[in-house]
Design brief:
The complex is a heterodimer of chains A (173) and B (429). Chain A contains 6 helices and 4 strands, in the order ααβαβαααββ. Chain A has 173 residues and is mostly helical. Chain A is globular, with a radius of gyration of 20 Å. Chain B is mainly beta and 429 residues long. In chain B, the strands form 7 sheets. Chain B has a 5-stranded mixed β-sheet with strand order 8-7-16-11-12. Classes of the chains: A mainly alpha (173), B mainly beta (429). β4 of chain A pairs parallel with β18 of chain B.
Chain lengths: 173, 429
């Protein structure tokens, strides 16, 4: 069970890291990365840094969902247990009883939804959706979860501002 | 040695000795998911037909050298294998290490447990590299050849999935030690300390987290505290004297000694230095621990002290009263195992077990206790005490502290009942 906070550990290292940072490279091994290299990769934190240009709304998202998502996650986003695809909506208010953990009931950040869909979905063709399609399917899922209105448009500005129902549901160990 | 020999009894799992190699392959039920009970699928493989042997191997020449193509394999009499968890598809899967059949402290590379989120990628090491960027002075790419020129370390560490034994919170029937504790394996790992790579890129002073990303189809990501990365993270390319197996991340994985398995990113291709965690899917919606009050603990990284008796263990049957060596594995993500105690009477009395070697930090160690079984029902338990003084808790104490909606990080004592007929079952079943 827990005995020490990671915050304490980070304090300890706060004095050690600058000494490393000031040092010159020890060996010179490695090749300088270019902006073109870095443009190939992404990871979207809660503040939305790195979200790409583009946008998508609920209607477009419903079409994308029906075409590439519904086969596994179900027509009504309820998940399909025999395939192993989890439910995406529902479960609010279940976390103290019989938890149903979904985007709606459990996920604390909408940025995570964008990042994960762009990164790893659909399972049979990860990375195949355009940025507009990812924004659109995020809008659709969040709309079906009653988190954003039916006319919501997701883009680099709106995704980080979505207030997720379980935003306050986590504490660092 | 024993008063009753049932080895000719075809109904006895001890037909091939006391171990359950064949019954484990043929059939056993277990549950690893939160709700589902399913029959285990065995990993499909060539059937192990018993090898042909001469009546007297001293009277005929043996097989020629080199017939193995230059890479040896185990005896055809050895049948231990991983078993596949109860999963609905072959891409997001896990397999269990056969701990009862493990000989020694290291897990054979081919028996190391697996957890894949989108299959096992095929990667050409000549094209694979590691990008290190973000809050650094010099963003760099390291080829595999580059990494191997940096200072190397070789260390023995366990990796344990944080879901190992997770079904035990709900008292699901994890009948064999393979399915109760087999998401645990130990290897000798070789690689470059992250600290050496950090020196090359120059970490900026306020950096406090590092995102690690894999090159599989899940493009798996986890955020790791910088303190851990600098202290003992290894960018590992070697496992037990050869290149890391594809199932363990070939050609490169992150090794975070003592941290939950999922953070040890396989097929490692990128490290992004940051001042905040990225809140990836795995560290928000998946590997978080829901408490009874509905709040989830996040960034629960360390695998706490734990142990399990692997002999005798579930679905074995002792042939009869007599002398046995109780044996098992103990480990702690906090450091070295200090001692292991074994109880023969359900926790009323405890005896210090022998350790087979000087324990290494964040590594398993084998323990043993000689036992003369009198043929009466017995409840065997083991508990690990690590160098911090932490004592492996009972199931009741663990559940009282965490509630029943926790799934990960189960590390309670796991008792086995030995019945008068010698059969062994999980004591809580």
């Amino acid at each position: 069970m827990r005995r020490r906070s990671w915050r304490g550990a980070l304090l300890a290292v706060a004095f050690a890291v600058p000494a490393v940072a000031k040092a010159a490279p020890a060996t010179g091994i490695g090749t300088r990365l270019t902006q073109a290299d870095l443009a190939q990769v992404f990871a979207i934190p809660p503040d939305g840094r790195g979200l790409p240009a583009g946008q998508g709304g609920v209607v477009q998202g419903a079409a994308v969902y029906a075409q590439v998502c519904a086969a596994c996650h179900g027509e009504n986003l309820q998940g399909v247990k025999t395939i192993g695809a989890p439910a995406l909506i529902g479960g609010r208010g279940t976390l103290t009883t019989k938890p149903l953990k979904t985007v709606e009931s459990y996920w604390p950040y909408a940025t995570t939804l964008f990042d994960y869909i762009k990164r790893a979905m659909p399972m049979n063709a990860p990375g195949s959706l355009t940025n507009d399609q990812v924004y659109a399917v995020c809008a659709y899922i969040l709309s079906r979860a009653h988190i954003v209105p039916p006319d919501a448009v997701m883009d680099a500005r709106t995704v980080p501002s979505v207030q997720m129902p379980n935003h306050a549901g986590f504490e660092p160990n | 040695m024993v008063e009753t020999d049932r080895s000719e009894d075809p109904s006895c799992p001890c037909t091939n000795g006391m171990f359950t190699a064949r019954p484990q392959r043929r059939r056993f039920l277990f549950a690893a998911g939160a709700a589902t009970l399913a029959g285990a699928k065995t990993v499909s493989a060539a059937t192990n037909a018993a090898p042909t042997v001469p009546p007297d191997p001293t009277r005929v020449p043996g097989r020629g050298t080199g017939e193995d193509g230059g890479y040896g394999s185990r005896s055809g009499f050895e049948t231990a294998r991983r078993v596949l968890g109860p999963v609905p598809n072959s891409l997001t899967t896990w397999t269990f290490t056969p701990l009862a059949e493990q000989v020694g402290n290291l897990t054979a590379s081919g028996l190391h447990y697996e957890r894949h989120h989108a299959g096992i990628p095929a990667i050409d090491p000549a094209r694979h590299g590691l990008m290190v960027h973000g809050l650094v002075e010099r963003p760099l790419r390291f080829s595999m050849a580059d990494l191997k020129r940096l200072p190397l370390v070789t260390r023995r560490h366990f990796i344990e999935c944080s879901g190992n034994t997770g079904g035990a919170y709900q008292r699901l029937p994890l009948k064999t030690v393979q399915v109760s504790h087999g998401l645990l394996s130990t290897s000798e790992w070789t690689g470059v300390p992250f600290a050496a790579v950090a020196r090359e890129v120059g970490i900026v002073p306020h950096a406090s987290w590092v995102l690690a990303e894999g090159a599989d189809a899940a493009v798996m990501t986890r955020s790791i505290p910088m303190e851990k990365m600098m202290r003992d993270a290894v960018l590992a390319f070697g496992q037990n004297g050869e290149a890391i197996r594809p199932e363990q991340g070939y050609p490169l994985r992150l090794l975070l000694p003592g941290f939950e398995g999922n953070t040890n990113i396989k097929w490692l291709r990128r490290l992004q230095v940051s001042d905040k965690p990225f809140m990836t899917r795995e560290e928000t919606s998946k590997y978080t621990d829901l408490m009874a009050n509905g709040i989830a603990r996040q960034f629960v990284f360390t695998m706490e002290a734990k142990s399990v008796i692997t002999f005798p263990s579930g679905e074995m049957r002792l042939p009869g009263p007599g002398y046995y060596e109780i044996g098992g594995l103990a480990w702690s993500g906090r450091g070295r195992v200090k001692s292991v105690q074994v109880s023969l009477d359900g926790g009323a009395n405890w005896h210090n077990a022998a350790l087979s070697e000087a324990p290494q930090p964040m590594c398993t160690v084998r323990f043993s206790l000689p036992w003369r079984w009198d043929g009466k029902p017995a409840e065997l338990q083991s508990r690990c005490i690590d160098e911090t003084g932490y004592v492996q808790p009972s199931h009741a104490a663990l559940v009282a502290a965490r509630g029943l909606n926790f799934y990960y990080h189960y590390n309670a004592i796991y008792p086995w009942n030995v019945a008068a007929d010698g059969s062994v079952t999980h004591a809580a079943a």
